[in-house]
Amino acid sequence: MPLVRKSKGTTEKELEKAAKKAETERIRAERKEQKEREKEAKAREKERIKRKKELAKRAQDEAKKAQVAYNDANKLRTKQTAALEMTVHVDPSFCDDPAGSRVLTRLLDLHVKIARTVPQVHPRALTWTRTVRRVWSQAKGCWEPCAIEREEREGWVLVRLSAVELSALVMEDGCGVEVWMASVRSSYEGAKPIVLLEGLKEAMKLRNRRLDAQIREGMRGGRGRGRGTAAATAGEVIVSKEEIEANLLWLQMCGDCYVQFAESLDEVVDLIVSFTTTIAMIPERRTRSEQFMRVKFGDTVKSGASLQDCWRRVLMEVKPCTESVANAIIKAYPTYRSLMDAYARMPTEASRVTLLENLDVERVGSTKRMGPAMARKICLALTSEDVNLAVFDPPPARKAHGGAPGGTGRGGGAGRGANPFRDGGHARFGAFQRSGGNTFGWGT
Fold first, then answer.
1. 3 state SS of 368
2. Engineered SS bond to 339: which of 104, 137, 333, 424, CB 3.0-4.6 Å?
3. Neighbours of 275 (CB within 10 A)
4. What angle, rounded to 10 degrees, do the helices at 200-219 and 241-253 form?
5. How does pLDDT run across 81-138, given as a tens digit for each residue?
6. Range 51-56, long-range pairs (CB < 8 A, 24+ positions)
7. Main-chain dihedrals φ then ψ at residue 195, nearest 5 degrees
């Protein structure tokens, strides 16, 4: 087969064609690579936008959770809601007596947690801890939720003490009560003791019956022993009323503790539950009193629908002035100016303070008269110019009834006026009293 020699022009065309093909492939590869880079860039941008949205949503969710936690922390607590934060620590043997089991049942009804794992130094003692979920910010003037909950010990310890046990302590060389209180303080260091004295009235009645039986036996000359004498000599020994009062006075004044009396099982249960809810409300009441009537710049103040409605709202800002009390004042003094003119006509401060006393306050189904404490608060809130005056502080305790020195009855030292548990005791230890009666008036 003969050889065909290619011409020079044909070779150049093939080279040119190969160069064009290579250039086309290069351009195609660059375009493909560019598309790949654009695709990757779009994927990265899409991922960035997706990540940004996720972060924004997460931040929004966290902000919502933080707002919910903030709102929950700044909700007004009631005794029922505050009790949910409390844990009561008792000895495992606390339920051995009926009162202890009933106390724990009532506390569990309030959803208070009970801790019975650690034995107490005093088996009939109770202590409290609080689950802290919020802290008060003095700078911001509000509660802030805690990131991590923690348990804090409350500075109180309640010790149940029967009248028989108190008598036994009094008879121990004259200083048994002091030694016992020192033991309580050393066992619960830093805690304020609360002594719940049980059955004192019944014990004193039993002692009086024993003394009467002994006197009757002496008058009969020791002839025979009736049923009353046998019952009087049985049972535990109770010391005299004077010794009981002296040691109770020492406990409160020198021992620096609260003393509360309970005569029945129901009273024991009610008082312990009341102590628990009151201690649970201490932080809430403290901050609530600090923030009461504090108006900041820009706050919205709601006005009344009418002149009398505005006047009623002004009066109800003086706690605990209720709507019925405000209506009673409005009935006598329809406007603010009329009441201020009436105050201005009073010649002395004492007459101004007592101006609103004995106004008829209409309640549901009854009518009562306004007391001196409410009249004093309203007068001071509207007329006082002392910027340091705390209108909501309780008035000073009333002094004991006057009388001749050494006399008896209501006026003398041996009567009602000299009983330290009636006047000074009521004023000092009124923080934990839940009844309107005189708690310390067992010795009459």
1. strand
2. 333
3. 21
4. 160
5. 899 999 999 888 887 778 888 888 888 888 888 887 677 788 888 899 999 999 988 8
6. none
7. -100, 120
